[in-house]
Design goal:
alpha+beta
Length: 598
């Protein structure tokens, strides 16, 4: 097909603004999927995506659409909307020439909309502004139109309106895609050059890479090269998505499709790599970067017999998701497990949920933490990924932690409670400006540690769900933090160790000790529960022992006999306490990690 009749585009939007529903209507109108086979969120293939109503894995699809008696090929990439996956979104955006900026008429422009729009503008994409959910009784069409026009610097007449549920305006949108988005440019390079924007893993065929061809062509049997990874392979199959994988004889410049590599080793394929010919390799695309984990947590199987299964599961998931890392570690209380790095809290939640669903694993996940750069008294610098390895306070001269630049968009009514919340989380508030009618945009800087401390849930709570948040990692700053250890029976429990702000020592210590006091079962001897920081015990409670009445069989007699029995019992319990190792039940770990008792 002539490249002049190809249009490559994506849909970018905040979470739950109707991307997947709009894609469903496009597939229906273009006849890509028969009506009898249609279902909601057809491009969201994972069960987890359907349950939550969010896109986790991006999904490309090829559609054929006629306009003015000319058949056009439309390649759509449905991208995730969550901030955790912004790097993958940036690579997908690089694979297209235009984007549909979708804004929910009931919610207006949200924080994540601004972040993704900035990425699209940096790539020089053509933006088509679209308002969705116009059929809703809560739609604020005029207000949203005004917000979009101001944001993009366009006229309100250029903004299209659609209803993904009813299909209203979708044909007009497809026409606009053809009219406004330019066709792929001919790179005029002698050879194959294609960008990897996603990949998945098949047990039988290995890694399947999703690519956009910028020059050259590729056929089954061609010898190819991952330019950054330096790995050569043979193309076992090439094809396009309709939306199922459909083999084709050849992919040409301008096409979006897939290549079956046959590679079954983790770490070879990665988003942003360049695939080129093995005999005549072309240089890689600029801007490649491996996604850096920012949140770390340890994962242990509840039953140590499941450790080999956990190892296999993590290796298998890494074949389809190179953005998380894992390395083996051992704990005296939890046994063998893995220290894993994630792009964010949602990414952590998704990986652990997939381990549970796809591999039937029951897991213990430690409290999430971030990485700290510490400088010791001797001048040695070290990056700490786990709280338990954080040195004692006296041996450190400097601690640095990552900060984030965040944007919050909220109705003016909730600005007061939001400002109080920001103060509690050590944020530095920058500019606050009016954004649309009765809404404000707040730009701020905050430690990543505080963002993870339940900030998003608290923000939704104080704003009744109306505030939206987006953020990006910025630089390292000096941190005034300390290590907090929890001791049970005078032994440190590594899984409960955490790094906290110095000013929150008392509050965090009392909270952790009180929670453990309520959750731990009583034993035959007194059990101390203590929180230790800065070399001293900050909070402490004692779990009383079960008491057995050893004198119940006595019916009188000399009081000294009774006292002897009680003294003997006391000595026995003391000896038991000295020799005993307090084991914490797994359900207590689970409840502590979940932050509650249920």
């Amino acid at each position: 097909m002539d490249s002049r009749h190809i249009r490559n585009f994506s849909i970018i939007a905040h979470i739950d603004h109707g991307k997947s529903t709009l894609a469903d209507r496009m597939l229906e109108i273009t006849g890509t999927i028969e009506k009898r086979k249609m279902m909601d969120q057809v491009l969201d293939k994972m069960e987890l995506e359907r349950e939550r109503g969010i896109t986790i894995k991006m999904q490309p699809v090829r559609m054929l659409y006629k306009k003015d008696a000319i058949e056009y090929t439309l390649h759509l990439i449905d991208t995730p909307g969550h901030i955790d996956f912004s790097y993958e979104v940036s690579r997908a955006i690089k694979a297209v020439e235009g984007s549909i900026l979708l804004v929910d008429a009931t919610q207006g422009v949200q924080a994540q909309t601004l972040t993704t729009l900035a990425i699209a503008r940096e790539q020089g994409l053509t933006i088509i502004p679209v308002i969705s959910k116009i059929d809703s009784a809560l739609a604020r069409i005029d207000d949203t139109k005004h917000e979009l026009a101001v944001l993009l610097g366009c006229t309100e007449e250029e903004i299209l309106m659609v209803s993904g549920r009813e299909g209203t305006g979708v044909r007009e949108l497809l026409d606009a895609v053809i009219e406004r988005i330019p066709p792929p440019k001919d790179e005029q390079e002698n050879g194959l050059k294609s960008l990897v924007f996603d990949f998945q893993y098949s047990n039988h065929r290995g890694v399947i890479v999703y690519i956009r061809l910028f020059s050259g062509s590729v056929r089954k049997g061609d010898q190819l090269l991952f330019k950054v990874a330096g790995e050569t392979f043979q193309a076992l199959e090439v094809g396009t998505f309709t939306p199922a994988e459909t083999p084709r004889d050849e992919l040409r410049a301008g096409d979006i499709g897939y290549i079956v590599t046959g590679i079954k080793r983790p770490g070879v394929a990665s988003v942003g790599d360049t695939i080129t010919g093995a005999k005549n390799p072309l240089p890689e695309f600029p801007g490649y970067a491996r996604p850096r984990p920012v949140v770390f947590a340890s994962i242990y199987p509840e039953n140590q017999d499941d450790f080999p299964t956990l190892r296999l599961a993590l290796d298998r998931l890494r074949l389809s998701d190179s953005s998380f890392t894992h390395e083996e570690e051992a704990s005296g209380t939890l046994g063998r497990g893995y220290r894993c790095g994630f792009l964010g809290m949602l990414h952590l939640e998704i990986i652990t949920e997939r381990l549970h669903r796809e591999f039937s694993l029951t897991l213990i996940v430690t409290l999430p933490s971030i990485n700290y750069t510490i400088t010791k008294k001797g001048g040695e610098t070290e990056v700490i990924y786990t709280p338990y390895r954080f040195p004692d306070d006296g041996s450190i001269t400097r601690v640095q932690e990552p900060w984030v630049r965040a944007t919050i968009i909220s109705p003016n009514t909730y600005l007061g409670p939001i400002m109080q919340l920001l103060y509690e989380h050590e944020a530095e508030v920058g500019e606050t400006e009016t954004f649309g009618d009765d809404r404000a945009r707040v730009v701020l800087l905050m430690p990543l540690r505080e963002l993870m401390r339940n900030f998003f849930d608290e923000l939704k709570s104080v704003s009744s769900g109306y505030a939206s948040l987006s953020y990006e990692i910025t630089d390292l700053r000096d941190a005034d933090v300390v290590r907090l250890d929890i001791l049970v029976g005078e032994e440190i429990v590594p899984a409960f160790t955490r790094i906290i702000s110095r000013r929150r020592i008392e509050e965090e210590s009392e909270t952790m000790v009180e929670k453990l006091f309520e959750l731990l079962p009583r034993r035959q001897f007194v059990t101390k529960i203590q929180a230790r920081a800065l070399g001293r015990i900050v909070s402490s409670k004692s779990l009383s022992a079960f008491r057995k009445d050893v004198t119940q069989h006595m019916y009188g007699g000399d009081i000294t006999r009774r006292m002897k029995l009680l003294e003997k019992q006391k000595k026995g319990k003391k000896k038991m306490q000295e020799n005993a190792r307090f084991s914490i039940p797994h359900d207590v770990f689970l409840k502590m990690m979940r932050g509650g008792k249920e």
